[in-house]
Write a structure and sequence with these properties.
It is built from 6 helices and 10 strands, in the order E-E-H-H-E-E-E-E-E-H-H-E-H-E-H-E. It is of the alpha+beta class and about 220 residues long. The strands form 2 sheets. The protein has an 8-stranded antiparallel beta sheet with strand order 1-2-7-6-5-8-10-9, with helices on both faces. Strands 3-4 form a two-stranded antiparallel sheet. The structure holds flavin mononucleotide. Flavin mononucleotide binds next to loops.
Length: about 220
Amino acid sequence: METFEVVKESSLTYQLPSPRKEGGFSVEEAMAQRRSHRHFVDKALDASDVAQVLWSAYGITKASSHKQLRGGFRTAPSAGALYPLELYLLVGNVNDIEPGVYRYLAGEHQIERIIDEDVKLELSAAALNQKMIYEAPACLFYSALYERTTQKYGTRGAERYVCMDLGHSAQNVYLQVESLHMGTCAIGAFNDEKVRKVMQLPDKETPLYIMPFGYYYNKQEF
Ligand SMILES: Cc1cc2nc3c(=O)[nH]c(=O)nc-3n(C[C@H](O)[C@H](O)[C@H](O)COP(=O)(O)O)c2cc1C
């Protein structure tokens, strides 16, 4: 396994290992087995698996220097290739990565720490006390800069395209997590203002999804 490299001293930044492009788990198996999981085991995650999940969500698959693409084409389609989503990683218990909140820099395949403590408990409180957020060893968080899409597509961009983009990316995460024998759950129910505060979101970003992930145990939901 590749080791992690700290690339900047001032703001803690990790260079993530290159994503794996092959695996022993078919996309059909992942679709057939995918389920939302809400009960996580307190077991540390491998940093390389966490990096793989980030890449599946919004990683670069075709590099480009075109400014609009901010690094290149991604694992998920995007209306007009405008890529309105921003992705964050909340780390609680991941080998080789310090706890905290990180922004995913897709172009560099790096994570940069923006909050130097684990705020999953506070995020859980801001999301109707959904316990799975703090029980999971790690969590993805999506926001969107709507104007990237609305400046070209107007109302249609706001009402349709941004959340369509989100769905494509989040489904990748579900399938990737499944193939790593882990689980996740897409969470859309939360208090926007409280979540903004916990995540210290810039005003222009709209919070959209929280996706805790990790090893899980099954509990009958219905
Ligand atoms: C837009 C959206 C929002 C969701 N929000 C939540 C949520 O806040 N909490 C939760 O426990 N599950 C949430 N879910 C997960 C659904 O409950 C789940 O997908 C559904 O029960 C079907 O189960 P499955 O994903 O296992 O097939 C959400 C799913 C979607 C698509």
